[in-house]
Write a structure and sequence with these properties.
The chain folds into 2 domains: about 150 residues, D-Maltodextrin-Binding Protein, domain 2; about 150 residues, D-Maltodextrin-Binding Protein, domain 2 (3-Layer(aba) Sandwich). The chain has 14 helices and 13 strands. The strands form 2 sheets. Strands 1, 2, 3, 4, 6, 7, 8, 9, 12 and 13 form a 10-stranded mixed sheet that branches. Helix 12 runs antiparallel to helix 14. It is elongated and about 65 Å long.
């Protein structure tokens, strides 16, 4: 956690000491806008108030273990043994889509497609020019200029980096062995910058650039993004239906403690590059606090459709929400609120 985030959290906790205690959450910065959309609506309709502070993509586990907040948000699921060791429960919340955006003269969104293997070769620095034979072969109707490929990636710890590298690790063995996945990897070439908006600005500024970013940021900056091949070998364009198809394929029934990554799901219509936000709760909190938390997230699930659409997020299917509610009942003896 950087110094700025430490200061923000410290000020929050000082302020809370002088107020009637709201529910407090912290963690993933990428989920901050989404969580706060729910919170604004919930705070308008409920006497129980909720506050959320973005702290960093890998700080969810650290923050919830500090016992300074009531819940935390992680962009990746926590391993079951870590949950048990730390007296935690996790469950998925909503899902965000990610894209690969480019700045190639004459190429617009949806006109170009790249495979996972080619993306891995590009971000490893193996393919250096846009008129590369393999790229041209995959896009026979486009004429690529002979300009350098400039990968743009996050310099800071980022959930988008974890999502992108987790996808590449699933589809390309060389990437898995040499680079792996994580919030940060040792990029061999290109430009590194901070924040999703920083990536978007660099892509717009640099001819030949290619980078990964959250869909809502790409839409905001009007980036041109590519199509991809999914696990079924089908070319797909990112859209609500292709994201929803991927979410619908997520097999949480056969996952322990909801430990599952959303990248590269099956289904002929599924978009392969997406990630969930995972809520972390303590199983040893007092019953009153736990009830307030679960009532808040139940409210979020019942209002997820209208809120998620505002930032191109995807709500969970009803069967997954039912599975989550059953876990709440089993762990906390939670009862669904009336009405």
């Amino acid at each position: 956690m950087n110094n700025r985030n430490c200061l923000v959290l410290s000020l929050l906790f000082m302020w809370l000491g002088a107020q009637a205690a709201p529910l407090t959450g912290a963690g993933s910065t990428s989920a901050k806008n989404l969580i706060n959309l729910f919170i604004v609506k919930y705070n308008e309709s409920s006497q129980q108030k909720v506050i959320y502070v973005g702290a960093g993509p890998n700080d969810g586990l650290k923050i919830i273990n500090s016992r300074k907040v009531d819940f935390a948000v992680s962009v990746v699921p926590i391993l079951p043994f870590e949950l048990k060791k730390n007296h935690l429960m996790q469950f998925p919340f909503v899902v965000l889509g990610f894209v690969v955006a480019v700045n190639i003269p004459g190429v617009r969104s949806g006109e170009m497609v790249l495979s996972g293997d080619l993306l891995a070769d590009i971000f490893r620095g193996k393919i250096k020019y846009w008129d590369n034979e393999e790229i041209q072969k995959m896009n026979p109707n486009l004429n690529f200029p002979h300009i350098p490929i400039v990968p743009v990636q996050r310099a800071d710890l980022a959930g988008s980096t974890f999502t992108f590298t987790n996808y590449l690790s699933k589809v390309n063995l060389i990437w898995l062995l040499l680079m792996g996945d994580g919030y940060y990897v040792d990029w061999p070439s290109g430009i590194s910058t901070n924040g999703g908006e920083g990536v978007a600005r660099k892509i717009l500024q640099v001819p030949g650039a290619i980078g990964y970013d959250e869909l809502s940021t790409a839409v905001q900056y009007r980036l041109s993004y590519i199509d991809m091949f999914n696990r079924s070998g089908k070319r797909v364009h990112i859209s609500r239906p292709s994201l929803q198809s991927a979410v619908d394929q997520a097999d949480f029934k056969n996952s322990e403690d909801f430990y599952l990554f959303f990248t590269n799901q099956g289904g002929v219509k599924s978009w392969p590059l997406l990630a969930g936000s995972y809520i972390l709760l303590r199983t040893d909190s007092d019953r009153e606090t736990t009830k307030k938390e679960l009532d808040f997230f139940y409210w979020c699930f019942t209002h997820s459709n209208s809120v998620a659409k505002k930032i191109n997020a995807i709500e969970l299917p009803a069967q997954i929400v039912s599975q989550i509610e059953q876990e709440w009942q089993d762990e906390f003896n939670w009862k669904k609120p009336p009405g």
